[in-house]
Task: inverse folding
């Protein structure tokens, strides 16, 4: 198989086994027809891109039943507000400014541009979350972004000052069409800003649950620079983010149009030093993942033998990878507590652990809560002080399996 970015031959890293659609929470009558595919990643020794070797069709993952709404996290709402204002302070200015966001979800970020009176457009392929944005008066098209979509946008609205995405670019297999579309869409002085889970953080934290069907790629400065250089664009800055357990925000512009920050050289050098172009780095990641799996299963089995109740906390997309890779079944984890109404009363993809409301968690607290939403740890711990003060304990597996 050839690399999505540079077409070099990619090297297999690890298989996480047969996995279902990560956000495919389902009811019992759908169990027999549930779709599975082999979740495995490869690494490109030329541009350092880590990518899925197989991905389900986009329509299977993003549709009118999509189960993730950005607005359910207060922490992420604050983060996106800051992201929007950063763009308005730096790049999207003036009465004629225009910004486009892809994967705009329920409009959690674009609402700030709308409130500032800035022309905006969201491109969101999942009709149910797009409907929420539209209801709030946020201009949204229900479709996927590519070069053709970019031409349609330019024809109707003109070129954009800003192009944004948050935890979306890594979902897209046709990166060349995306980059081509951005080049078409962006004004000569326009700027792209997008953020996604950062490969270096995934490797160092052994956060293998960042790998699931939607996450086609794990980016780094090295791979992003390589991709956009092919389209006459360049990295002009990078800013690390704490979101999603370790993300990177990339700023990109047309070559020669913006001053390039020293951060670009810093991160490119650091990534080389950390071995992103060396096979042994990914061999170590494979062994680290296997150890994490063994340690977590040994702990859950031990707690079962002690007749302790364990409940999962947060029915995340990430949890699907962990549950199915490790083989976590309802006899080990009683149910998963989640605040998202569309998931409640359904079952987790693959292993079919019940998903119940957070009221069930608080009314009959377990002995242990398995923290699937570890990337929202601070927000969750603040919310669940009563559980902890009552003697409840938390199990986490990033960066290592431990009880806290």
Result:
């Amino acid at each position: 198989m050839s690399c999505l970015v540079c077409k070099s031959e990619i090297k297999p890293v690890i298989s996480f086994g047969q996995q279902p659609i990560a956000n495919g929470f389902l009811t019992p009558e759908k169990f027999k027809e549930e779709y599975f595919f082999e979740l495995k990643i490869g690494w490109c020794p030329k541009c350092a891109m880590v990518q899925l070797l197989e991905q389900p069709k986009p329509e299977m993952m993003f549709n009118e039943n999509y189960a993730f709404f950005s607005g359910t996290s207060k922490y992420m709402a604050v983060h996106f507000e800051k992201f929007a204002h950063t763009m308005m302070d730096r790049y999207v200015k003036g009465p004629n400014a225009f910004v486009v966001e892809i994967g705009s979800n329920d409009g959690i970020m674009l609402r700030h541009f709308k409130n500032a009176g800035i022309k905006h457009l969201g491109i969101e392929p999942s009709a149910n979350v797009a409907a929420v944005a539209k209801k709030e008066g946020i201009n949204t098209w229900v479709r996927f972004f590519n070069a053709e979509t970019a031409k349609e946008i330019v024809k109707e609205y003109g070129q954009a000052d800003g192009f944004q995405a948050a935890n979306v670019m890594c979902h897209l297999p046709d990166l060349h069409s995306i980059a081509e579309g951005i080049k078409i869409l962006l004004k000569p002085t326009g700027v792209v800003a997008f953020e996604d889970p950062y490969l270096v953080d995934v490797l160092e934290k052994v956060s293998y649950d960042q790998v699931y069907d939607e996450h086609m790629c794990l980016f780094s400065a090295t791979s992003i620079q390589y991709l956009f250089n092919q389209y006459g664009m360049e990295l002009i800055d990078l800013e690390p983010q704490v979101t999603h357990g370790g993300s990177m925000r990339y700023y990109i512009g047309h070559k020669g149009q913006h001053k390039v920050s020293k951060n670009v050289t810093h991160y490119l050098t650091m990534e080389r030093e950390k071995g992103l172009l060396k096979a042994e780095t990914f061999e170590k990641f494979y062994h680290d993942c296997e150890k994490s799996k063994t340690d977590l299963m040994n702990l859950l089995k031990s707690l079962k033998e002690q007749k302790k109740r364990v409940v999962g906390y947060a029915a995340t997309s990430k949890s699907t990878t962990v549950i199915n890779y490790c083989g976590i079944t309802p006899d080990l984890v009683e149910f998963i507590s989640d605040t998202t109404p569309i998931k409640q009363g359904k079952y987790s993809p693959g292993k079919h652990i019940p998903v119940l409301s957070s009221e069930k968690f608080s009314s009959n607290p377990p002995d242990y809560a398995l923290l699937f939403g570890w990337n929202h740890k601070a927000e969750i711990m603040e919310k669940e002080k009563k559980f902890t003060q009552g003697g409840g304990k938390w199990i986490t597996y990033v960066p290592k399996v431990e009880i806290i």
Remarks:
- The chain has two domains: 70-277, 296-403.
- The longest strand covers residues 186-197.
- The CA atoms of residues 233 and 254 lie 4 Å apart.
